[in-house]
Amino acid sequence: MRFGGHETFAIRDGWLHKGVKLLSENPEQLVHEDASDFLGVGRNMAKSIRHWLTATGLAQPHHGPKTSDGLVLTLTDLGKLVRKRDPYFAEPGTWWALHINLVNCSEHALTWTWFFNSFNFNRFDRPVCLEALKRHIELSKQRVPRQRTLERDVACLLASYARPVPSPVEDPEDGSDCPLRELGLLSFFKESGYYQAHQERKVIPAELLGYSLSKAFRDAANGEGKADITLFDAARIAGGPGRSFVLTAESLFEVATQAESSLTDVGIEIIGLAGHRAIRVVKQPPLTWLQEYYLNVAKKDRHAA
Fold it and tell me: Is residue 65 over pLDDT 90?
């Protein structure tokens, strides 16, 4: 269980590109005392980039000797795939995948996994969110961090996802907004101080629905053939698409229906009737779903050209 590795910074535009690029070219520089110079950011920001690379699943500790400056990270298979297919993190599917990984990464992003999997308030203010997190940790029989630590973690999470309403006049040169806001999961109403979770249908690439199902359901990730997952389970299980995408069962059904119509190879389909609906999905690992996403994006780009 870890809090605060982000150094209070949400992910900023360009950060993960810089981190993945440096890891692929000279990984030891990421833990060098001058890592901030190599990345072109402040010292605490460099620490934050290292944290986010690990929490999102793009990097992992290298199982070798430590350098004098610390434990070297290395790109995961996911990091290598993104480096090859979407090095500038321009595709929405990349951010959906990273978000899903955060929702499933209690080791490095416990506040994220708790918020999306266990916090059931659709409209709330920050004190309610903070108190609910503290209560969750107490009930899980874990040591409760200092109040200030929890406040920083909740503030970072909300800053990562919540779009301010009304929208501020933005400076095009300002890259401080977190790209995860583009997923449309939360809004922050500045006048009232309340946050609103958006449970309606969202524009989610079909392959990323498969990615989420494969991540949450072992039967969907292993073996051959297809797996049938009830809509009830898909909407409610921790780390699944209902929780990760902030969807009700009905809005998840709409997303799955859209996915069924967009994947011509029948990788996802709806089966059953009304109260017994299920999602039938091809069994394959999450990374395979993301590979298919990038291949389909490339095909669409070629056709558009």
Answer: no
**Cα atoms in the Cβ-side hemisphere of radius 13 Å centred on 197:** 19
Q: How far apart are CA 149 and CA 140, in angstroms?
A: 18
Inter-residue contact 197 to 246 (CB < 8 Å): yes
User: In the chain, where are the structural domains located?
Assistant: 15-197, 206-304
User: Alpha-carbon distance 100 to 94, whole Å?
Assistant: 10
Q: What are phi and psi of 42, to 5 degrees?
A: -75, 165
The DSSP secondary-structure symbol of 270 reads: E
Indicate if the pLDDT at residue 190 is higher than 50: yes
Q: How many other β-carbons are positioned within 10 Å of the β-carbon of residue 284?
A: 21
Residue 117: CA count within 13 A, CB half-sphere = 21
Determine the Cα–Cα distance for residues 97 and 101; give it in Å rounded to an integer: 6
Q: Are 233 and 226 a contacting pair, CB within 8 Å?
A: no
Cα–Cα distance for residue pair 274/169, rounded to 1 Å = 45
Looking at residue 140, its pLDDT comes to 86
Measured CA to CA, the distance from residue 258 to residue 68 in angstroms comes to 52
Domain 206-304 listed as CATH 1.10.10: yes
On the 0-12 / 13-18 / 19+ scale of CB atoms within 10 A, 27 is middle
Secondary structure letter of residue 70 according to DSSP: B
Tokens of 268: 């996802």
For 114, other C-beta atoms within 10 Å of its C-beta total 21
State percent of the chain over pLDDT 70: 92
